[in-house]
Design goal:
Number of helices: 22
Distance between the termini: 25 Å
Largest sheet: none
Shape: globular
Number of domains: 2
Strand content: under 5%
Helix content: 55-70%
């Protein structure tokens, strides 16, 4: 009996080690993909001779929501930003001896996603350092808290504003660096404070929405962002700045959208993910049916189904997101493949290794479509002009994070999932005003608030869960 138990433990340890290695290599695969795409993008967009200069512009620009890095810099410089931030995460994990999990992968995806609209190689470091200091003070292993450091970068726009705009106010000029001593001090202190506050907020806010919002850090960091923004501007009576923009001639020439390039890029990466998963799974998709049927609630697909099937799910789910985006771009009202759109394509797959599948996400998407149809009907009846579509930037971003509500559909069925999508769509464009656009996880905050609305209603009316993960064992 003891020998059998020891053998089982050894097998489990080998499996965990194998999964960690595969996750490490997979994250490196994404970073390298961004790096390879950088010069290709520079040539195709006409930005090649300006990539490093435009990357510099990205680094020195305030980056509150929604700052389009395709506009501030360019296609190639934005991909370079994603590559460097991704490689930095890869290096941090190697140096700290981190054993990646599904949550670590989620943190990596969120970092690279926001490298297209708000996070850069400069403003990411103070939150990282803050969590590192927190671990040293609390005598915790940083390797076990790297994912928290990744999540904390959602507050990076505060760092950029402290460094480049907040202390000089109306004297700010795009492209000119006017750093003050006070600005540097505020940025460093804020990064340090973030490292101590975010870990304290995460457990409590997760209990509030009971893991029905996969983007759990969004609610915690959103609450902190609301507090900081209120003090910085509302309490002190300072006028909050607008999101930064510029007349980028190359971007304008391309219709303020790089749809063809980004569609091909993501299609290649997602298809390769499926192929890699298929090969590592023994040249088969065996087991994916069970993963597909998961409720997504408190799920860890890496532990339950293995890393190869997670890669398959990321690829299949990612292609579904890509098809949806290209479909809604048919609408004459809205945007195309902007920096934020490219970013949320990655953000939408954040938890594809720990909850999201096409099966439990489609009701959320359907909810957004239902609200769109309802709004159109009401406006037509009342003689009003409808000012948004599913292709409007706010609703594209909102839906990407609303997919984190998929456990509602997984546990309660598609009808409750659809309602979750409708509720989220109603409030998704209003929540950024609460934190002034300084929290990159605005969609996660919105999803968290949606969960806080739905959970007590479902409990009060004693709505029973229809599905459990035990049924698919």
């Amino acid at each position: 009996m003891d020998i059998a138990i020891d053998t089982a433990l050894i097998d489990k340890e080998k499996k965990e080690k194998w999964n960690s290695r595969l996750l490490t290599l997979y994250m490196l695969f994404w970073s390298v993909a961004f790096l390879i795409a950088t010069p290709i993008a520079g040539v195709m967009s006409g930005e090649m001779g300006w990539i490093f200069h435009n990357f510099y512009l990205i680094l020195i620009s305030p980056s509150k929501l929604v700052t389009d890095y395709f506009n501030i810099g360019g296609l190639g410089s934005t991909l370079l930003n994603a590559a460097l931030c991704g490689l930095a995460c890869n290096l941090v994990m190697v140096v700290s001896h981190t054993k990646p999990t599904a949550t670590t992968l989620a943190g990596y995806f969120l970092i690279t996603a926001h490298c297209f609209y708000g996070l850069n190689f400069l403003n990411m470091w103070p939150p990282f350092c803050g969590v590192y200091v927190y671990c040293k003070v609390r005598k915790l292993k940083f390797s076990e808290n790297v994912h928290i450091a990744m999540f904390a970068t959602a507050l990076a726009p505060f760092i950029s504003d402290f460094l480049f705009r907040y202390t000089i106010g109306d004297d700010f000029v795009f492209g000119e660096v006017q750093i003050t001593v006070l600005g540097v001090i505020l940025a460093l202190l804020f990064g340090l404070a973030t490292g101590f506050i975010v870990p304290a907020l995460l457990p409590g806010t997760t209990k509030m929405h009971r893991a029905f919002n996969l983007y759990k850090a969004g609610l915690a960091i959103g609450i902190l962002g609301i507090f900081v923004y209120a003090f910085m501007y509302k309490t002190l009576g300072i006028e909050a700045p607008d999101a930064l923009s510029r007349d980028n001639p190359i971007y304008l020439k391309n219709g303020s959208s790089y749809g063809d390039f980004m569609t091909v890029f993501f299609a290649i990466v997602f298809i390769l993910s499926i192929v890699i998963g298929f090969l590592l799974n023994g040249f088969t998709f065996r087991g994916y049916e069970k993963l597909w049927k998961s409720t997504g609630h408190n799920a860890d697909f890496v532990k339950s189904f293995g890393t190869p099937l997670c890669f398959v799910n990321i690829g299949i789910y990612g292609i579904c997101i890509l098809l949806y985006l290209n479909f809604i771009f048919i609408s004459p009202i809205g945007v195309g493949y902007t920096g934020p759109t490219a970013g949320v394509t990655i953000a939408a797959i954040t938890f594809a290794a720990s909850g999201q599948t096409p099966r439990n996400v489609w009701p959320i998407v359907f909810g957004y479509s239902i609200l769109n149809a309802m709004t159109y009907s009401i406006c037509a009846f009342a003689g009003l002009t409808m000012g948004w579509s599913l292709a409007s930037q706010g609703y594209i971003n909102g839906l990407a994070f609303a997919t984190g509500l998929c456990p509602f559909a997984g546990k309660y069925g598609w009808r409750v999932g659809t309602i979750a999508g409708i509720v989220n769509a109603i409030i998704c464009t209003s929540t950024s005003a609460l934190h002034g656009g300084f929290v990159l996880y605005n969609g996660g905050l919105t999803a968290g608030l949606t969960a806080l609305i739905l959970i007590p209603i479902l409990d009060f009316y004693e709505i029973k869960e229809k599905f459990t993960d035990e049924e698919i064992e």
